[in-house]
Amino acid sequence: MRKILVALILLSNIVFAQVIPDYAKEARWASFIEDGLMDGDVVLLKANDHEFLAIYTESESDTKKTAVVVHGLGVHPDWPQVIQPLRVALTERGFNTLSIQMPVLENGVGFERYLPLFTDADNRINSAVNYLAAQDLEANVLIAHSLGSEMSAHYLANNKNPFKRFVGIGMPGPSAPYLSNINIPVLDLYGDEDIPSVMQGVQEKQRASKHNTNYRQIMANADHFFNDKDDLLIDEVSAWLK
Description:
This protein is an alpha/beta fold. Helix content is 38%, strand content 23%. The longest helix has 17 residues, at 118-134.
């Protein structure tokens, strides 16, 4: 029985290690974005020997401050909910933006299947940071939604980086252990009609951030995707960044 158990554990570790992004899906998203992009310019970055798409949008003001924007589960850097409204609106509020394609899996896959991809996600954020440095721009704030905020918290907790602020929108409860290792100012923004994994983790994230005097948690009158509440989302994030 013990041999069977050991074999099952080893097999599960192999399966876990073999999880790779759905590059074909990423390519479809990239083609879709390139064909219809209205604001910003396509930039190709590289991480893990794989080229991935990002969108750079220049600020209306002369600034080096740049917000790196990270989307949620399975979508893309011009996603019309949360991501596109923020990446464009922030250019009117004193920031350049660089919205990056994160690793994605096939449709219908839950948060837990993405855990093996967190190191891949770290490398993509680092690639964005390096790109900005090469352009003499400042990676000032990391802004992320949903699973992207958990990936971003993991990155901040485990990597030396230049970010001065972090905005996590609809950040799931499992992000709490990472928050305990983050010391920069954090805005933890969620909706009063958010998804269960966010609502159930509200207090846990507060406890994990007790050491951080610049951690702020705000509940807005919105759902997980701020549907029909783009102005509210932009105003909350912009006000905190000021």
